[in-house]
Design brief:
Chain A is mainly α. Chain A is built from 3 helices and no strands. In chain B, α5 packs parallel to α10. The chains are: A mainly alpha, B mainly alpha.
Chain lengths: 105, 244
């Protein structure tokens, strides 16, 4: 009854929670960006895994195609984010948001 | 780490694990869907113009998503060029290996990369593959050419590269709008012409995405950090004396 896709969906949910934790806890913007990407990977895993959570269900091509689109958008958004972080570093010499109250490591 | 920040970490960890457990519970509680899209995709595969279901979804059923995807890529490259570092790029003066082995390897490998990209593009019609995979391979070849000094760095893209960046978006827009002249809706291809339309769009997308990827790499090459002197930043000056 339970299909193999369920394990991917559960792993995706765990990755989403882990990524969210990293996003909140880390002050360094590149770490935040990596954590955000982990969150996105979790969403992709849920999208691919959920349609196959029952045994014998064929893979859902629509969600697979949406995930493919999502990966490309995530990569380009990450590249733009990295460019913004580097610009911030060039202008201020800092790698964190200006209003972050946490002390420098 | 101070006590207050440890407390924040603990609270964040507890909230995140509560969310994770809730999400897993929600996955288990989801009812089985009555209608799946998988059967619908298979049923209309004949009219889509391609034989691979994922390509059919990407370029035909949900062509709108792919159209906006190339728009997002274009916006990202525009944004990155707008925020590109001031000053000379580090790769501009980086020493390039002039040994014969690397040159011979590049001559050997670049045609293979182009061949593999062409195959991936063609294979997309009936098996896993397609424009994005082909463009990733081509883009990797472009990065290799830049790293070995075969193509020059630039401060801003020349007109040809600008056309290349826009080609995929422009061709997709034209092909998507053509059905409008026949009274059909945007992106609504006639079954007889869908295969040609998808091939034209995918070829243009491949060239454009490869150009975008290489532009991202060259255009975003970091400037040398003059403000923070480090061994890595000082090295090029030492070596420049010994260069021909």
């Amino acid at each position: 009854m339970i299909g193999g896709g369920l394990i991917y969906a559960i792993a995706g949910a765990i990755l989403f929670a882990l990524g969210l934790y990293g996003l909140v806890v880390h002050a360094h913007l590149v770490r935040k960006l990596i954590a955000f990407n982990i969150t996105g990977s979790g969403v992709f895993l849920v999208l691919v895994g959920l349609p196959q959570r029952m045994a014998g269900t064929p893979p859902d091509r629509v969600s697979e195609a949406l995930v493919l689109t999502g990966i490309v958008v995530a990569v380009s958004a990450t590249a733009f984010g990295l460019a913004l972080v580097r610009r911030l570093y060039e202008l201020t010499g800092k790698t964190r948001l200006p209003n972050d109250p946490r002390p420098e490591p | 780490m101070s006590k207050g920040h440890l407390l924040i970490r603990v609270i964040a960890a507890m909230l995140a694990s509560a969310l994770g457990i809730g999400l897993i519970a929600a996955i288990f509680a989801l009812p089985r869907p009555m209608v799946g899209l998988a059967a619908l995709v298979e049923a209309h595969l004949e009219e889509s113009g391609v034989r691979h279901p994922v390509t059919a979804v990407l370029l035909n059923y949900r062509g709108y998503d792919t159209f906006l995807e190339i728009a997002v890529l274009l916006l990202a490259v525009l944004g990155i060029m707008a925020f590109r570092p001031v000053g000379p790029s580090s790769l501009h003066r980086a020493r390039i290996d002039s040994g014969p082995v690397l040159a011979a390897l590049i001559r050997l490998i670049i045609p293979l990369i182009v061949l593999a990209a062409g195959y991936l593009l063609w294979a997309g019609a009936h098996r896993p593959g397609g424009a994005f995979q082909a463009a990733a391979v081509l883009g990797g070849g472009g990065v290799l050419l830049r790293l070995t000094g075969a193509i020059p760095s630039f401060r801003s893209p020349n007109p040809w590269l600008r056309i290349g960046l826009l080609l995929g978006f422009g061709v997709f827009l034209v092909v998507a709008a053509l059905p409008l002249s026949e009274g059909l809706r945007l992106l609504e291809y006639r079954a007889a012409r869908a295969g040609v339309a998808i091939l034209v769009v995918e070829s243009a997308l491949t060239l454009s995405i490869a150009a975008i990827l290489v532009t991202l790499f060259i255009g975003a090459a970091p400037s040398r950090m003059r403000s923070a002197p480090s061994p890595a930043a000082a090295r090029p000056e030492d070596n420049s004396a010994g260069q021909p």
